[in-house]
Design a protein that fits this description.
Length: 578
């Protein structure tokens, strides 16, 4: 059920996430341009019903080819999410790590003083290398016969709609993702080393300004039946929807033309640029009726392998070996680990090095100093959250852990309320707690970290952390993310698991009960006072049958928390190389 929720969330992100080309705003901008084109062509005779027929003809949207597009999108998203996206995401940090080490080893020159204009050059270099690598991977797919067998899946579309974008074989997506990851990582390494300063790309929800403008400029019409040219001048510099539609044509004069994404300069350099004449005929699909062979999702997946094996078994073997090599290299190199994942145990130079080598995220753990009955030490939450935060950072990869915030809202001081009624509990006002969280996160962002996670182990701090997340979000630059991992505490499945194991709700308890007592026994056995814990009646300040706690239960409870946090993190991470 949880896997289904993750998949549904991932699918919805294709329409709600700004980093995706089918983001609803981009679709609406294309719709607006299509409507404008219809009115311009119809003149005074335009009508709403006519516009609907012009933009949404059944012959296109309900065509068998379109139905394959829709089904392929659903299935391929599942495959990419579970198998290939995690692999591709490791290429960039792995290359950055290896590149920075190599730059230092070979003695690549660098400037000690930062160059004021370097950030501008970095921006354009990053945008250009991304666009070139997308073009180059596309060029390879057309020019290398073996790769063309897989790229045929995309060109087999007999009509075009925005979802045709996602009709791409995983081999295509991996090739593009790896090349883009390598290219952008090399640019980052060169600028970071040569100019001796960290760089980050100014983005809007994960998109740079140039790409954002391009997607708003009718991008989704390129996979449609509606022809939009940018005009004779702009078409020489930008790839218009009409030029890409011509790229899909199986007319011989149109073969292997207009392979760029944004800029036409690459096509011009490689002599593949083609500006169609007005009303030049475009015939979609593959020559000799081959498109009919790709009439199902299964065929789109498996047929390229059969065709590739017939044409070049050696190349197919090389592809498999290359894939395994990239996988093992990415995972091996990507596991750089500094002396510790805890900021307080690192020097500032070690933090700087870790960040330069791909550690771009930090977890801010919040615990609490509060009573836990007669059997649990006051620092229970601090010890547990330190353990789980480190485990989450290790499994997620490229993530550091800030010092545990040991003081959280626990109740009023005068009069004493909540846990403050028990000796030793320490509290801070909610607004103070929020300000500390806010300044901690902003400090991390100022040092160049991209993502900060708030992770809390106490129910009393959840609401305050939600407010802090909202306040911090309002102050972030584009490309920075603050995420409250509230599912770690609120939706970890612990209670349901124990119910399934036969424990009654009153035995499970809540504060200092079966769950957190077991967790502390697993993390720090000395934190549980054995004589008090063995009493089979509840003591003041605790609930549940905590005398039934044991380390084995604790390990399971900890694992459920860790898994809940990692699943929430996975929902926030997107990838769009399609």
């Amino acid at each position: 059920m949880e896997l289904l929720q993750i998949l549904l969330s991932y699918l919805s992100q294709h329409f709600t996430g700004l980093s995706y080309r089918t983001y609803w705003v981009f679709l609406m901008s294309a719709l607006g341009m299509a409507f404008w084109l219809y009115i311009r062509q119809s003149g005074k005779d335009w009508s709403l019903s006519g516009a609907i027929q012009y933009i949404f003809p059944k012959s296109v949207w309900l065509h068998k080819s379109s139905r394959v597009d829709y089904a392929y999108f659903l299935i391929n998203a599942f495959v990419m999410l579970l198998v290939f996206t995690p692999l591709i995401l490791k290429v960039y940090p792995a290359t950055v790590e290896a590149g920075l080490a190599a730059a230092s080893t070979i003695g690549l020159p660098s400037f000690n003083a930062p160059f004021a204009g370097a950030a501008v050059f970095y921006f354009f270099a990053f945008v250009l290398i991304t666009d070139f690598m997308i073009f180059f991977s596309h060029w390879l797919m057309h020019k290398v016969p073996f790769l063309w067998q897989f790229h045929k899946v995309h060109h087999a579309a007999e009509v075009l709609n925005p979802m045709t974008l996602y009709r791409q074989h995983p081999v295509d997506l991996i090739l593009t993702g790896v090349l883009v990851g390598l290219g952008t990582a090399i640019v980052h390494v060169l600028f970071t080393h040569i100019f001796s300063q960290p760089f980050s790309l100014l983005t809007f929800g994960g998109l740079n300004a140039i790409t954002l403008a391009f997607y708003l400029g009718g991008y989704n019409l390129r996979h449609s039946h509606i022809r939009l040219s940018f005009g004779p001048v702009l078409d020489r510099f930008l790839i218009s929807p009409e030029q890409h539609q011509l790229h899909h044509s199986c007319v011989e004069a149109h073969f292997d033309k207009n392979m760029g994404l944004i800029f036409a300069v690459w096509d011009r350099l490689f002599r593949t640029h083609y500006i169609p004449a007005k009303a030049e005929e475009i015939v979609l699909g593959l020559p000799d009726g081959e498109a009919k062979e790709f009439s199902s999702v299964y065929a789109c997946y498996m047929l390229p392998f059969r065709k590739a094996a017939k044409s070049n078994k050696l190349a197919l073997t090389a592809l498999a070996i290359c894939g395994m090599g990239i996988s093992s290299t990415a995972f091996a190199v990507g596991r750089y680990v500094p002396p510790s994942l805890h900021l307080e145990e690192l020097t500032w130079t070690e933090v700087q090095k870790a960040e330069a080598e791909g550690y771009r995220s930090v977890i801010i753990p919040t615990g609490g100093t509060e009573q836990g009955g007669a059997h649990v030490v006051l620092g229970k939450h601090n010890q547990i959250i330190r353990y789980t935060a480190e485990a989450i950072a290790k499994r997620h990869g490229n993530t550091l852990v800030a010092p545990v915030m040991a003081y959280v809202p626990e109740g009023g001081i005068s009069p004493q309320t909540g846990h403050m009624r028990y000796s030793g509990t320490l509290t801070v006002r909610e607004d103070v707690f929020q300000m500390i969280l806010e300044d901690t996160a902003l400090s991390l962002f100022s040092h160049g970290f991209d993502t900060v996670y708030i992770l809390g182990d106490s129910g009393d701090s959840v609401a305050a952390q939600d407010k802090a997340e909202a306040a911090i979000s309002a102050k972030l630059r584009s490309g920075q993310k603050i995420i409250h991992l509230d599912e770690y505490y609120l939706a970890n499945g612990q209670f349901d698991h124990l119910l399934a194991e036969g424990y009654q709700p009153e035995a499970i308890g809540y504060h200092a009960g079966l769950r957190d007592t077991s967790e502390l026994m697993a993390v720090s056995p000395d934190g549980v006072r054995k004589p008090a814990q063995r009493q089979t009646t509840q003591t003041k300040g605790a609930t549940g049958a905590y005398w039934k706690a044991n380390p084995e239960i604790g390990q399971k409870m900890l694992e459920l928390k860790i898994e809940a946090a990692l699943k929430q993190i996975s929902k926030t991470e997107t990838l769009d190389f399609e």
